């Protein structure tokens, strides 16, 4: 599936990352691209738009993102679960993941890492702070550009439970009327 | 609702935090307790069991967790949504949140911060690394004890979308057969 995408102000990406979905991280360095599956990330700030994540040193992507200081965080939907699992269970040392999984690499606007066209959203990231990479494999990214599908409003996302199991996102409920205006 | 709880090995808490739920952080310092609602957290390591999270300096809880170097991360279920929103829209400066929201403070085993009895799970945390608190309000916690409801296996959790809206966790699917044994 492919989506028509629109720009989203980068301070609004929390809508898609705060609920905790599994994401795909795409990267490029020295003519090579790769994709990894990632579940350990958090929003850290609205402005600048910061995201922190763990990329373990055992991942082939670790060296690509560390060298290039860039990546794209892509949001897959639940229909892509077998691709998500396949990407997480292969290594870029052995496999060209774009080709192997039939995914389309698109040019990003502000980074050299490619967007994954088939994903619902793509967040272009530049390394904002490297201070915890050596100690924790923790990268702090600034999201510099966000591409999001124009529809549907609520994508069905995957949330990893460990042990090969995923929670699929369910219904949306509003409690807007209970919020203080300054909390919205 | 209250649950019968059992101990969970602390390296297994990813099952509950990696899917990205809204959590309640309870704290205690100098005879005062407080609770805040939090959505910006990530698992960082299995062993030691590390969780990183943003607690903004504007929260009354900030000083309590900073001084005590402890907290409890509590996992509320979807039936508690109005309590979760209420806690997020009031301040411990004005309100005793345990009393106001009818929640029960229970003694923890290894920290002075109280457990919230009505929550599905309670993770006792000690501050592991303060190096990013000043720059990002980012706390790195070690989970030293985990209490989890014996049933149900899959709690219905809340995932914040911003703008007063929540996603409620949906069905669980397994792709275990597609995983390499060393990835499980």
How are the SSEs ordered, and which strands pair?
The structure is a homodimer of 184-residue chains.
Chain A: E1 5-7, H1 14-17, E2 23-29, E3 32-38, E4 41-45, E5 50-54, H2 60-68, E6 70-75, H3 81-88, H4 97-100, E7 105-106, E8 115-116, E9 121-129, H5 133-136, E10 138-149, E11 158-162, E12 165-174
Antiparallel strand pairs in A: 1-10, 2-3, 2-6, 4-5, 5-10, 6-9, 7-8, 9-10, 11-12
Helix content of chain A: 10-25%
Largest sheet of chain A: 8 strands, antiparallel
Give the DSSP E fraction of chain A (strand runs of 2 or more residues). Answer: 35-45%
> How is the CATH topology of chain A named?
Pnp Oxidase, Chain A
- What structural class do the secondary elements of chain A suggest? alpha+beta
Pfam families (chains A, B): Flavin_Reduct
Family (chains A, B): Belongs to the flavoredoxin family.
Keywords (chains A, B): Flavoprotein
GO molecular function, one term (chains A, B): oxidoreductase activity, acting on the CH-NH group of donors, NAD or NADP as acceptor
Summarize the structure.
Two copies of one chain form a homodimer. Chain A has 184 residues and is an alpha+beta fold. The first copy, chain A, has five helices and twelve strands.
């Amino acid at each position: 599936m492919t989506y028509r995408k629109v720009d989203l102000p980068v301070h609004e990406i929390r809508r898609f990352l705060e609920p905790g979905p599994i994401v795909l991280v795409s990267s490029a360095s020295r003519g090579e691209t790769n994709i990894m599956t990632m579940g350990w990330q958090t929003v850290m700030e609205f402005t600048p738009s910061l995201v922190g994540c763990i990329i373990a040193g055992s991942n082939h992507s670790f060296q690509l993102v560390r060298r290039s200081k860039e990546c794209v965080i892509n949001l897959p939907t639940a229909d892509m679960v077998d691709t998500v699992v396949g990407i997480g269970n292969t290594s870029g040392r052995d496999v060209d993941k774009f080709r192997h999984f039939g995914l389309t690499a698109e040019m990003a606007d502000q980074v050299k890492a490619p967007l994954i066209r088939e994903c619902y959203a793509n967040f272009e990231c530049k390394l904002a702070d490297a201070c915890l990479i050596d100690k924790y494999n923790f990268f702090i990214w600034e999201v510099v550009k966000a591409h999001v599908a124009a529809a549907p409003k609520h994508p069905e996302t995957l949330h990893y439970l460990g042990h090969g199991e995923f929670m699929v996102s369910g219904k949306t409920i509003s409690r807007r009327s209970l919020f203080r205006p300054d909390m919205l």
